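re: ur question from yesterday

yeah so i grabbed the chain u mentioned. its 377 aa long if i counted rite. heres the sequnce exactly as i have it in my notes:
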Amino acid sequence: MARATKRKDNRYMKNVGTGKYDPVTGKEIRKSIYGKTQKELEDNVAHFKSQLITNTLVKDRTWTFGMYARHWLGIKQNSLSESRMMVLNALVNKHITDIKDILLIDLTKSDIQKCINKLNGHYSEQKELRNMIRSILEDAIDDGLIYRNACRKVTIGKKPAARTRALTPAEKRAIPECDFTKEEKCFVYLLWYAGLRPEEARALTIHSVDLDNETIHVESCLAFGKNQGRLKETKTPAGVRDIDILPPLLPVLRDYMLSISQLYLFTQTSGELHTKTTYRRFWKKIYDKINLQLGGRNQVIKKGEIIQEAMKATDITPYVFRHEYATILYYSGIDIKEAARLMGHTDTAMILNVYAELDKKKSSSKDKLTKYLSQNY
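ran it thru and got these structure tokens back, copy pasting raw so excuse formatting
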């Protein structure tokens, strides 16, 4: 413990640690405390330490959480991607209403927990919000505005089990009969029979496809910011891979490639890469055709008036086709490591879950019991 020293002006002084460290030197930042007498000095030291503990020793007591959150977003803007900034801005705009006007120094764990609890049942958003608030408060500590992170022990709901499904028998019968364009059918079949993520399919070029050797090389993806498409690396390094072109895909892919002259396989009508808006329209056309084939109805609007309400016959998404591809790998006897490679996964955890679920379906308890009873009774 630092000892008190008597100065030339007859005051006593002691250097007290703040619990914060200089990012350059790594040394603890200390503050000099003074007193006219040793007792006054000890009282002042005790008061200073009390302020540290109770989070009341700050440079500026006027910052509300909302003010600092906006300041924090401005700083992060140049270091985070456009899509990530969209997520953070949405969280600040929609989900911090209850705490935005509370002073940083007055913000408590209970305040934050109540705010987080409003998103119960929405695990992903809840986790994002908690992590963002935690990061904001950590930076506020570094800025000397608070000395304690009230969000460190805030809890969130339990992560729900992932819901994934493959194609239903009805969908597998209906999709080949849909009135797709060559482009739409090629996109669907790439998801179905190559297991591509939609963003990977959007980034394919004519050079990605080797029809002679019947392989597809995946090395990038087309992601979206606010709207504009942007080419980037695959989700993980394992996403860079070569995939064999399966027999159902080969004629569809060859037929489509012979009909195009642009570099990228899937583009806007202008030949430019898809934006978020144009891709949504593209997928909606595919969905509507599948929905109709399954007996559903699509919404019809004329002169701004809805004259036919939609009736959904399916909840199909691009990832249903990817799950179906994993199912094909399972029933084809592809081992787990090779399946993970073909799917572009870093490890086997995801494919293990798929295979385990399919194992249950393939050999249920009822099947085993029925077999046993038929042999022994």
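noticed a couple things. The mean pLDDT is 88. also The first helix runs from residue 38 to 53.
anyway ttyl
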